[in-house]
Automatic annotation (TrEMBL):
It comes from Hyella patelloides LEGE 07179. NCBIfam families: nifV_homocitr (TIGR02660). InterPro entries: AIPM/Hcit_synth_CS (IPR002034), Aldolase_TIM (IPR013785), LeuA/HCS_post-cat (IPR054691), NifV/FrbC (IPR013477), PYR_CT (IPR000891). Belongs to the alpha-IPM synthase/homocitrate synthase family. It is an enzyme of class 2 (transferase). Keywords: Acyltransferase, Nitrogen fixation, Transferase. This protein is a Fe-Mo-cofactor biosynthetic component. Coiled coil: none annotated. Pfam families: HCS_D2, HMGL-like. It catalyses: acetyl-CoA + 2-oxoglutarate + H2O = (2R)-homocitrate + CoA + H(+). This is Homocitrate synthase.
Amino acid sequence: MPPIQINDTTLRDGEQAAGVAFTVAEKVIFATLMDAIGVQELEVGIPAMGSTEAEAITEINNLGLKTLLTGWNRAVRSDIDASLACGLERVHISVPVSEIQIAVKFQGNCQSVFDRLRDTLSYACDRGLYISVGGEDSSRADDNFLLDVALAAQDWGASRFRFCDTVGILDPLTTHKKVQQLVSKLIIPVEMHTHNDFGMATANALAGIRAGATSVNTTVNGLGERAGNAALEEVVMALKRIYGINTGIDTSQFKEISKFVVRASGCDVPPWKAIVGDNAFTHESGIHGHGVLQNPATYEPFSPEEVGRERRLVIGKHTGKHLVTNLLQQHGITLNQTETRSLVDAVRDLSVELKRSLTPDELLNLIPNLN
Ligand SMILES: CC(=O)SCCNC(=O)CCNC(=O)[C@H](O)C(C)(C)COP(=O)(O)OP(=O)(O)OC[C@H]1O[C@@H](n2cnc3c(N)ncnc32)[C@H](O)[C@@H]1OP(=O)(O)O
Ligand SMILES: O=C(O)CCC(=O)C(=O)O
């Protein structure tokens, strides 16, 4: 498969998550962190939103980062002016392509999609900008209409077309079919933009890549509108580990960047969240512990260090004798078989009572001889 470009939109679609509002300083730090780990492109915000957003974008643009910076725009000339005022050299222009979106935005006038696109594309082209075009709600659009819009965008100077599953209604098989059709007819690259309303944002992003898309939108932790977007850490690790595609991104900083976004957004990630969740490399169950103690690959798809994590073995309701014995050995304690079995039973009872795993001290306190 060809190289894949990550175009992270935490600063645009990530921040559109209800209740999230990054400060200028947070946006600048985030962009610097993403640049440092080698993310190729950032959708850096919406210049037309006004002065604070424009200030953040301008400040990031002035840093001279290696990562490419793209501003999000409606098909409106004043939006392009706002992007230019921030010093951006790359703009993304979005047009609605489904019947329902065209109805609410352009009063059902499909010709308006082409007219506005042509107008803003020529306006941006005349100013020497790199232009990406997005088909908002591509997944619910008529396939022929979507293709006509994408071909028109290509003819009028767009350098990339974004396929958007705006309300996250696709599954990977349908995504593959739709994106393959688009890719086969276009010369310009196709970018995937997927939402997680049915929990398939990452899977659909990957399906689009399998179908020939060469760019993909992500957000850190999957932060984004409603149920969020395809998560940076999931897409990059799946590309690397499932398809053998190295994006060149330093994945060892994923946990640190995830923590930064948790703090800046005020949105925590659940313990079971892939890659960055607290439990992603934590083992408690007896059978898993028994396996991991001999060979971690029995229950880990890749090593935690690869994404800035550490393996944790904890004692709890599901723990068996091997894990308990291992922890006791670390404290220089050896029990016979009967004592170990009694201890495992006591661990189960206390875990149920406390409704959590036990600390090492709590485990040691259960040993009769130590009480
Ligand atoms: C699927 C997506 O994520 S799309 C991106 C969504 N992101 C955001 O909306 C976040 C930032 N948005 C904003 O700050 C504001 O919406 C602004 C600055 C862009 C516009 O603000 P306002 O002038 O107050 O308009 P408001 O937000 O109420 O309505 C949106 C307007 O944009 C128009 N519009 C929406 N999409 C497009 C488009 N792709 N091209 C052209 N016009 C569009 C709507 O028809 C409506 O037009 P109207 O002002 O003539 O009625
Ligand atoms: O870029 C576009 O056209 C819209 C992107 C978007 O946020 C979406 O469709 O959910």
